[in-house]
Structures are given as C-alpha cells and as structure tokens.
UniProtKB/TrEMBL annotation:
Pfam families: Usp. This is Universal stress protein UspA. Residues 9-141, 166-295 form the UspA domain. It comes from the Bacteria. Belongs to the universal stress protein A family.
Length: 297
C-alpha cells in the first residue's frame, strides 16, 4: 500500500458528541486502511463571557484533556497497531480545525441528523472549515435508527465529476485512492444540462457535432477524465453514469448504499463570507453517509 509523506495523518475533530465519536471511528478505519497515523484534535480556548459567572479554566482544560485521552484509548482498543496521537489546540474551533486539517492527509468532522448539519457544522462554522480548508474534509454523520451514518460497509465510492480532466483530477484521485484502500469500485457521475440558446453557434457546438451529439460528448468527457485513474488503479472497477439534470440531484439519486461520496469544491475566495458550491452543499445536507469535499483548481 502506498504511503503518504511522513507528516501526513488523518486528522479528526472530537468534542465528545456522538457525531464526533462516529467521526473518530470512521477516521480510525480510514487511517488503518491507508496505512496512516491518526491525529485526534480538540479546540479549547477559554473565552470569558461578559456577565457570566467566572469558570474554572484549569478544570475545563483538564476535562478536555481527559476526553481526548478517553477517545484515544478507545480507538487504540478497537484498532490495535494504529498510531494514534492527540492534541488540545488553544484556538477557536474553526482556526484549530483548519490548522489541523491543512497539515493532514484529510480532516474528518462530525455531522448530525438527516437534512441539517450540526456539531462542527453549526451555523457558518462548518461551512467555513470546508470552504477554507486546503485539504479534503470528510463529514461523517452519527449512526441513525433508519440507516448507517458512517457509510455502508463494502459500498462503492460515488464521485461527482465536473469540468475537464485537469479540473477533476484531485477529486477523482481522492475517490480512486479511497476505493483502492477499501477494495471496492468507483461510480463516476457526470451531470449535464442543455446549452442556452446563446450557445447555439457553429463554433461552440463543433465539438458536440464531432462527438455525435450532446450525450456522446458528455460520455466522452467523462471517459477522458477517468482514463488516467483507470490506468493508475487497474484493480478498481469503474461504473460510469451520465445523466441530464442538476448535478446535485443526479448525484444524490445514486448515493444509496455508497460507502463514501466524493465531491469537488472550486478553490475561490468570496469577497463576503465563504462558499462551498451548490453541489457540495446539496450532497452534504442530503447524502445519508460520509461525504468528502475535495478542493480543486
């Protein structure tokens, strides 16, 4: 199994909530599959609130450290042989998670409930982490009574492909590596829409005509994007899915039973706030299992 650089680990944010513990377990399994160390991190920063009773900062810090130790001990018991480290980071949650994630192979965070993200994704904090991270971020749901939140065991990796081969290289690379580590296949999904009336010019539609129509053109684009990854991972079965429709809706229509869903996020800085893109937003809110958001150019 290929090893990542020594400084890379799978980082996971924990805070004692059920969703963060589910994220820690998923991250531990992922680290073991990839032959990587696991790094547990918790943000802790004493922030006095005007008008609130003075709290014992030392006792709170001790409780936070005990939590990290307990989670680390549980992970080591469940995954003997896995290298596990932990760190209490003296910073607010968003900067702490970004610092840990940007130094890691990936960052794993917890999410709760079906259709609404809470925990680390409460308010704009989770969106900010996903939107600003330089490395992939995986959101893991806590298990629910109506289905597994941490992904179906043995389920394929579903990946959304957009743009050309260069634009989707990081996303496809992450998906194929995840599938190879699990010994499962990849389902690559490409959604397309009809061109606007202003796009119907001879020059703009020449590539479509040469491909034999819109559907063959989209199928060819997906095949070309997949070609280098098929070559790099010859043992990973691949299913291709091309469909007319909204990218988020098309992707969500095939995620049932998936072990992991992988989507891309274009790296860009908005003048006000942070954005993760409509496709990533839809999948994060509605996919039943883990979702990896991979930044790309």
């Amino acid at each position: 199994m290929a090893q990542a650089p020594a400084h890379r680990a799978v980082a996971v944010g924990v805070d004692g909530s059920p969703e963060s513990l589910a994220a820690a377990e998923w991250a531990a399994r992922e680290a073991a599959l990839r032959g990587l160390p696991l790094r547990l991190v918790q943000a802790w920063l004493r922030q006095p609130v005007d008008g609130a009773p003075e709290r014992d900062g030392a006792a709170e810090e001790l409780r936070a450290r005990h939590l990290l130790e307990e989670v680390a001990a549980e992970v080591r018991t469940r995954h003997p042989g896995l290298e596990v480290t932990s760190a209490l980071l003296p910073a607010p949650p968003v900067p702490a998670l970004l610092t840990a994630g940007n130094a890691a192979e990936m960052l794993v965070i917890g999410s709760r409930g079906h259709g609404a993200l809470l925990g680390f994704l409460l308010g704009s904090s989770g969106q900010q982490v996903i939107a600003e991270a330089d490395r992939p971020v995986v959101a893991v749901r806590s298990p629910r009574e109506d289905g597994p939140g941490t992904g179906a065991d043995g389920g394929e990796v579903v990946v959304g492909q957009q743009g050309d081969a260069r634009e989707s290289a990081a996303v496809l690379g992450f998906a194929f590596a995840a599938a190879a580590a699990r010994g499962v296949g990849v389902r690559a999904v490409r959604a397309w829409s009809l061109p606007s009336v202003y796009a119907y010019t001879p020059g703009a539609l020449r590539p479509v005509d040469e491909a034999g129509g819109l559907v063959p053109y989209e199928e060819k684009a997906l095949a070309e994007a997949l070609a280098p990854w098929r070559e790099r991972y010859p043992g990973v079965p691949v299913r291709e899915h091309v469909e007319l429709g909204s990218a988020g809706q098309v992707l969500l229509s095939v995620v049932t039973g998936a072990g992991l869903v992988v989507v891309g996020r274009r790296v860009r800085r908005a003048p006000v706030g942070t954005r993760i893109g409509s496709v990533a937003h839809a999948v994060l809110h509605h996919a039943p299992g883990p979702v990896a958001v991979v930044p790309h150019a």
